[in-house]
TrEMBL record:
One of its GO terms (cellular component) is cytosol. It comes from Planomicrobium soli. Residues 8-221 form the Cytidylate kinase domain. The keyword Nucleotide-binding applies. InterPro entries: Cytidylate_kin (IPR003136), Cytidylate_kinase_dom (IPR011994), P-loop_NTPase (IPR027417). This is Cytidylate kinase. GO terms for biological process: nucleobase-containing small molecule interconversion; pyrimidine nucleotide metabolic process. Its EC number is 2.7.4.25. It is found in: Cytoplasm. It catalyses: CMP + ATP = CDP + ADP; dCMP + ATP = dCDP + ADP. ATP binds at G12, P13, A14, A15, A16, G17, K18, S19, T20. PANTHER family: CYTIDYLATE KINASE, CYTIDYLATE KINASE/PANTOATE-BETA-ALANINE LIGASE. Belongs to the cytidylate kinase family. Type 1 subfamily. Keywords: ATP-binding, Cytoplasm, Kinase, Nucleotide-binding, Transferase.
Length: 225
């Protein structure tokens, strides 16, 4: 256990292993894990269900203002609640995956989400992962990590995840989706995906999940040595 709580920001593109690794790090440190991607997926699910204009910044922002998103720990991992309904599995559908980058690009959505995420992190030891945590959400985090892997490796990981959920998606299609999402996330006008100047880069292509988590745990302990 670390002697005082710190904020750990983990950024990177889709399917880089951020969430799985962040959960392990948080558990090892006794910290709170905050999955920002799940929060964006939740509002995307609601937008799709209500049929709003996904291209409208105003409609997306207005929808979020009347939406409750809550993250709760459980023995089986983090649970995601949308307006008090458990949507932990529903937000991982391909339907949501294909639409989440468009929703996350809206300025009004990101402004409100950043407020919520900063409130969740305030005064606590947290591990938060996403695409703009080190640059935008927690710019003063004691430890910032930017992790990535090759598109081919990330697609393979997503393919294996989908198989476990009984989702059949061709590997080539996943590669195309991930490459397109990288482009969209990196080129959006509001808080684009990029490495913070003071973030440490970790290439997870040839690392196991545990090896990557161990690297971050070592870095965290160095911050307090």
């Amino acid at each position: 256990m670390l002697t005082r709580p710190i904020q750990i920001a983990i950024d990177g593109p889709a399917a880089a292993g951020k969430s799985t690794i962040a959960k392990i790090v948080a558990e090892q440190l006794g910290y709170i894990y905050i999955d920002t991607g799940a929060m964006y997926r939740a509002i995307t699910l609601k937008a799709l269900n209500e049929g709003i204009n996904m291209a409208s910044n105003e409609e997306a922002g207005a929808l979020l203002m009347k939406t409750e998103i809550d993250l709760q720990p459980s023995e089986n991992g983090q649970l995601v609640f949308l307006d008090k309904k458990n949507v932990t599995e529903a937000i991982r559908s391909q339907h949501v995956t294909k639409a989440v980058s468009e929703m996350a690009a809206h300025e009004l959505v990101r402004i409100r989400m950043v407020e919520l995420q900063q409130q969740l992190a305030e005064g606590r030891g947290v591990v938060m992962d996403g695409r703009d945590i080190g640059t935008h959400v927690l710019p003063n985090a004691a430890l910032k990590v930017f992790m990535s892997a090759s598109v081919e490796e990330r697609a393979r990981r997503r393919f294996e995840e989908n198989k476990k959920r009984n989702i059949e998606t061709p590997l080539e299609e996943l590669q195309d989706e991930i490459a397109k999402r990288d482009k969209m996330d990196s080129e959006r006008e509001v808080a684009p995906l990029k490495k913070a100047d003071d973030a440490i880069f970790i290439d997870t292509t040839s690392l196991t999940i545990q090896q990557a988590a161990d690297e971050i745990l070592t870095l965290a302990k160095e911050r307090l040595s």
